[in-house]
Specification:
By secondary structure, this protein is an alpha/beta fold. Strands 1, 2, 3, 4, 5, 6, 7, 8, 9 and 10 form a ten-stranded mixed beta sheet that branches. The chain starts with a helix and ends in a 5-residue tail after the last helix. It is globular, with a radius of gyration of 22 Å. 44% of the residues lie in helices and 21% in strands. α4 crosses α11 and α6 crosses α11. It has two domains: 163 residues, 3-Layer(aba) Sandwich (D-Maltodextrin-Binding Protein, domain 2); 119 residues, Periplasmic binding protein-like II (D-Maltodextrin-Binding Protein, domain 2, 3-Layer(aba) Sandwich), CATH 3.40.190. The protein has eleven helices and ten strands. Belongs to the UPF0065 (bug) family.
Length: 322
């Protein structure tokens, strides 16, 4: 190697190092593969505000919904790995779809650098008021009795959604056949349950807590390791004797694969600080979520565990997504 070539390579290396050291020197975008207004969007906007203050550059949220998060996830997977395009999405993107769909335009591990899981999202098993069941065990007994007739009907957001998988976990734990009924979202699902169209439903705590407190529906149990402050009298499935029903959604922040290590160090450090902020944790809790910070390795381990779990559930229940 000539002296001139060595000098040129050294100059390029130093330039790249300086560029990474200066990160960020322009606006950063957080892609959310959901429509505005939901919990994922709210968490992303909260993080964007805090990141703006920490990094000294504008951080904006761009909503790119569609195809069960595939549109936004693929766009981020293909984005330049420079730290200026990030994504906040839920376990639907990282573990549910990879477990149920035979081919995806991204790999949940290899396509991204994993910054951290920032919130856990337990779901709740709900019952219409007329159903003669006050506990998950009583609902399970009813489900077994109804199995020969096609099974109790329970509401979901569609095949492969978090409510669907949770409902199948419950059915398998109960040793019963149940019939999932898909709805377009929480509003439609709550209306159907309140109106008695379905016996049970699975939904987020944030979407259902107000209806439970108003006495329009009943909450039987929540997933997760602890009771939710919004429904303090509702036991966890583990407390109710059904620990197998364990689906807990979550939200994770990623960057495209091959984002430079110095940039990732900056993002990891800043996000760890943000998720220790008392105001941030309070606001996340107000969204009926549990604030956490599970960095890279723990994030990847969560993905691996859930893909194996959901694949087994889907195989037993015959769930597939084309």
């Amino acid at each position: 190697m000539t002296a001139r070539l060595r000098t040129a390579l050294l100059a390029l290396t130093l330039a790249a190092a300086n560029a990474h050291a200066a990160y960020p020197d322009q606006a950063i975008k957080i892609v959310v593969p959901f429509t505005p207004g939901g919990a994922t969007d709210a968490v992303a906007r909260l993080l964007a505000t805090k990141l703006t203050g920490k990094l000294g550059q504008p951080v904006i949220v761009e909503n790119r919904p569609g195809a069960s998060t595939l549109i936004g996830a693929e766009a981020v997977a293909r984005a330049a790995p420079d730290g200026y395009t990030l994504m906040l999405s839920g376990s639907t993107t990282y573990s549910v779809l990879p477990a149920l769909k035979p081919s995806l335009p991204y790999d949940p591990v290899r396509s991204f650098e994993h910054i951290g899981i920032v919130a856990m999202a337990p779901v709740v098993l709900l019952a219409q008021n007329a159903l003669p069941a006050a506990t998950p065990q009583q609902a399970a007994e009813l489900a077994r009795q109804e199995s020969a007739k096609g099974g109790l009907m329970y509401g979901t957001f569609g095949s492969g959604s978090a409510p669907h998988l949770t409902g199948e976990m419950f059915a398998q734990a109960a040793g019963a056949k149940m019939t999932p009924v898909p709805y377009k979202g929480s509003a439609q699902l709550m209306t159907a349950l309140i109106g008695g169209e379905i016996a049970l439903a699975v939904d987020t705590v944030s979407a259902s807590a107000a209806h439970v407190r108003a006495g329009k529906i009943r909450a039987l149990a929540v997933t997760g390791e602890q009771r939710m402050p919004q429904l303090p009298d509702v036991p966890t499935f583990a407390e109710a004797g059904m620990p197998e029903v364990s689906f807990v959604g979550w939200y994770g922040l990623v960057a495209p694969a091959n984002t430079p290590t110095p940039v990732m160090h900056t993002l990891n450090r800043v996000m760890a600080e943000i998720m220790q902020d008392t105001q941030v944790r309070k606001r996340v809790s107000e969204l009926s979520l549990n604030p956490v910070f599970l960095p890279g390795q723990a994030f990847r381990e969560q993905i691996a565990i859930e893909i194996a779990t959901f694949s087994a559930i889907a195989q037993r229940a015959g769930i597939t997504l084309e």
